[in-house]
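task queued by scheduler; priority normal; single chain, no ligands, no partner chains; default sampling; output format set to structure tokens
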Amino acid sequence: MIGITVAQYNSNITDRLLEGALKTLSEAGYAKELVPVIHVPGAWELALAARRLAARPDIRGVVALGAVIRGETTHDQHINRAVSNALMDLMMETLKPIGFGLLTCNTLEQAIHRAGGNVGNKGCETAEAVLAMLV
């Protein structure tokens, strides 16, 4: 079983990422009904939810999805760095693949392009990466 955690902040973007990840997992034989999804308020909470999923013995990997879009301050940089470090640490600690599907964009337009637009869907790509790392 593969779990997904998805941030609700910027849901117009993260909902698309989630759809892509679920579609990719379904095509790989993981029925949507059997993929646990934990919705969290924002990117900051992704690592805790991913940890809870990874702690389950029936979970082989976790897809973490979110979207942080640069604002007027450096807040985005702090969130992005902390979340990416926490997810990497979790992967190394649990030896389970933790997919990094956190968009770190400068603009909303960039995020839209990465959530099913002309750059593809990073939710699909993140799920594909987790699937590729299952051993």
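post-processing summary
- Residues 75-94 form the longest helix (20 residues).
- Residues 68 and 75 are 10 Å apart (CA to CA).
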